[in-house]
Amino acid sequence: MMSRLRLLPSLLGAQAARLLATPRVQVSSCRRRSSEPPAASPGSRGGGVSSYMEEMYFAWLEDPQSVHKSWDSFFRRASEEASPGPTQSSSPSVVPESRALGSGRTKTSKLVEDHLAVQSLIRAYQIRGHHVAQLDPLGILDADLDSFVPSDLITTIDKLAFYDLRESDLDKEFQLPTTTFIGGSESTLSLREIIRRLESTYCQHVGLEFMFINDAEQCQWIRQKFETPGVMRFSSEEKRTLLARLVRSMRFEDFLARKWSSEKRFGLEGCEVMIPALKTIIDKSSEMGIENVILGMPHRGRLNVLANVIRKDLEQIFCQFDPKLEAADEGSGDVKYHLGMYHERINRVTNRNIALSLVANPSHLEAVDPVVQGKTKAEQFYRGDAQGRKVMSILVHGDAAFAGQGVVYETFHLSDLPSYTTNGTVHVVVNNQIGFTTDPRMARSSPYPTDVARVVNAPIFHVNADDPEAVIYVCSVAAEWRNTFNKDVVVDLVCYRRRGHNEMDEPMFTQPLMYKQIHRQVPVLKKYADKLIAEGTVTLQEFEEEIAKYDRICEEAYGRSKDKKILHIKHWLDSPWPGFFNVDGEPKSMTCPATGVPEDVLTHIGGVASSVPLEDFTIHTGLSRILRGRADMTRKRTADWALAEYMAFGSLLKEGIHVRLSGQDVERGTFSHRHHVLHDQEVDRRTCVPMNHLWPDQAPYTVCNSSLSEYGVLGFELGYAMASPNALVLWEAQFGDFHNTAQCIIDQFVSTGQAKWVRHNGIVLLLPHGMEGMGPEHSSARPERFLQMSNDDSDAYPVFSKDFEVSQLYDCNWIVANCSTPASYFHVLRRQILLPFRKPLIIFTPKSLLRHPDAKSSFDQMVSGTSFQRVIPEDGAAARAPGQVRRLIFCTGKVYYDLVKERSGRGLEEQVAITRLEQISPFPFDLIKQEAERYPGAELVWCQEEHKNMGYYDYISPRFMTILGRTRPICYFRIWDWPGHASHGWDRKCSGLQQARV
Ligand SMILES: *[C@@H]1O[C@H](CO)[C@@H](O)[C@H](O)[C@H]1NC(C)=O
């Protein structure tokens, strides 16, 4: 059928054929034909006469009886004549006469048409050459999951026919268009040479996808880099370096395999070329001025990267395989594949200093992507590198995860946002064409695993990993791209996985054919060495010496790894915080200074918060009212929620602490209370951030509305917070319940990061929470989940030492707070920075309290000498005569105000005491005990608005029991069971519930 297919272009005429959709479409319509009957009516498809004729033709090919007799005889005649070029047969009369083909052509028009044809041919290679490139080292799978070869790119004869060119044209000279560089310094080439050069650029071991980029300069740049004749030639020095790097990569894996044959190693075998690939990207970037590279990668090949890219001391890697390590020891088990790392060294190739860090990651492949970007952004920020000239990130991905995990897409969407961009990332995909045991044809719907990168117009360079020189070339172009256009780029290393998912796994269960081929596959090192030896670049002896040399290095390190106890987890930090801890990594003190600030600071911040620092700046009248309100409060020495937050941020900025608040709509605030960015009502996009006009030498404040992503953005801010302890980094959820789409970051990094990676992080999560307002949706930030993941022991009776508060904070995995007053919020934010260590802080923030007339704090509660109160005790009538009190209600957050109202409505101020928990976890055992003991005759009640299985009750209840014993149980009341039934809980008798509980 193929030879008959070739008839089509000549039937249609070259121009008409070119006007058709791409040749891929033609043939897929051919495929479709086989299952569907041909469409009967002409013009039923958008393509007009040509596609109608095409349909007829394919239908006729399948079954000559299926078309009208007139078509049958037309195609029959045409195929008998079968000469390429315009046919003289006139098509059946359904085709309008004027559109019929085959009118005579002049010589000039033939010349023009031939040139146009050549131009189309060149373009076809540029656009679709990658479909034909030889990318799979195993030669079994097609990297684009489609064995179809576009008909215009099959063989010379087909191509010529498709473009209405003849064999005799092959030796004719053609003028080259300006959109190609294959000519080098020549402006014309023979057609034969044009095809040869295009094939060598686009259809060998490199597959280039870039023609979808809608920037002519960028496309030209890529074409120049790859099409210019001779670009991929290497000096023998370069080849020897490449070989030496391959030796290290390969022999490192071999060494691990020899020493720990029964251990999981997640080796790189099958993609050893990744080591020289990464080193090339780093060398090239260093040459262009990069001083700091931040890497994120999954576990496959991680040890090799640590050893040979970052150059971590080998003995520190080997000692983690010590069989004496217990499962609970730091660095044991799979942890070695997840730890972070920071290392500064001289880059040998460029002789410049370079700092490399590898960010600790969980097994959730790709979760580390936004974290790396955030850390990169922070490092750029602290260095004043606003253009991304000094600091860059490299992300290594697996093919299955790159296509499968949505966070990849979320991360790409941060790549060009001013407050989130890192000015370009080099992505390297280790495309071993398998995901654990799953075949790529079952794992993705896109042709390549890299298609997600197209959303940001990133060029994608596919390369056969068994051709090390092609890999190196592609990587150096990728690095140049990043440093020229400051945009993302993807290198897709099409490789294989020599063993199972790990070395103990049997891949033949599921991939028999692939693994038969893999067992036959000559390792890339041997292939490349043979090539260099054959061409005389190295001798066999030199090659063997190189191997012996590296093996010796490994052996010696192995010896040292046994000699001394060198395993120390502190070597495994991706961001050391110099000077923040003691030399032994402990906090410098176990106290926290008072968190209040001098009154003049509060007054000054209040003044700025209620003014417009820029001249001729027109703000919205509604906002003027808000600012007047702030001025008024400042005069009266009080602050509401928004103003207290202003004062917390502002006072930290004054102390040199950078503050960054990021999330959806944070600039104004979901509830329109914050207004940190003022918008000029007259001039489009003219804005003002008064917080940056507080003091001339203050630290900078960043407030940024994010993309509508939680997973990506929380990950990003976590990474940002990782870079330095001297910054308050906050992520706010638009509504608290949205945090659950970032659950992976919360579970894998925020709650457990320190335990897994000895990694402190002071990120703050602001989660609007409260059952009022938006109905069942958007009500709950799920406090119960955060409390359930809090690590303080509910049953251990604590030792009340002098520094109980701080040491409890030091031991916890995170802090959970729900503040009831603006002052409390102010203090807890400031304490976050004044603590001598860093812990994540989760704050459930209010909605109704933002405007509640009673939810205001006096400056007296914020001035010097005041501090965060973990518990705010009752201070009214009940507190003055505690013996009279019948009921002591504990609560947290906004229900306090409802309870106070209810109490006064019932005139029970003397009988009922109400005490607030501002910090829920770690649990303030000491203060709760004190409070309860002050009211010996009172029954204890926990009141919340959440259902019993939600909110705080399950967390506080066993802790009350621990501290007070079983004789004074605490029972659950709900402030309202249904809207409008505010007193329901209040009137309930406690005793019955006590029984149930005890
Ligand atoms: C880097 O990103 C910033 C923020 O979007 C932008 O202002 C700057 O122009 C970028 N630099 C380059 C060189 O593209």
From TrEMBL:
Chain residue ranges for the region called Disordered: 25-47, 79-106
A biological process term (GO) from this entry: tricarboxylic acid cycle
EC class of the enzyme, as a word: oxidoreductase
Catalytic activity: N(6)-[(R)-lipoyl]-L-lysyl-[protein] + 2-oxoglutarate + H(+) = N(6)-[(R)-S(8)-succinyldihydrolipoyl]-L-lysyl-[protein] + CO2
Cellular location(s): Mitochondrion matrix
Keyword field: Calcium, Glycolysis, Magnesium, Metal-binding, Mitochondrion, Oxidoreductase, Signal, Thiamine pyrophosphate, Transit peptide
The UniProt record lists the keyword Oxidoreductase: yes
A single Gene Ontology CC term: mitochondrial matrix
Signal sequence segment: 1-16
Cofactor dependency: thiamine diphosphate; Mg(2+)
GO molecular function, a single term: thiamine pyrophosphate binding
Keyword Transit peptide: yes
Assembly: The OGDHC complex comprises multiple copies of three catalytic enzyme components, the 2-oxoglutarate dehydrogenase (OGDH/E1), the dihydrolipoamide dehydrogenase (DLST/E2) and the dihydrolipoamide dehydrogenase (DLD/E3). OGDHL/E1-like isoenzyme may replace OGDH in the OGDHC complex in the brain. The presence of either ODGH/E1 or ODGHL/E1-like isoenzyme in the complex may depend on its tissular distribution.
Protein name: 2-oxoglutarate dehydrogenase-like, mitochondrial
Source organism per UniProt: Oryctolagus cuniculus (Rabbit)
Designated gene of the protein: OGDHL
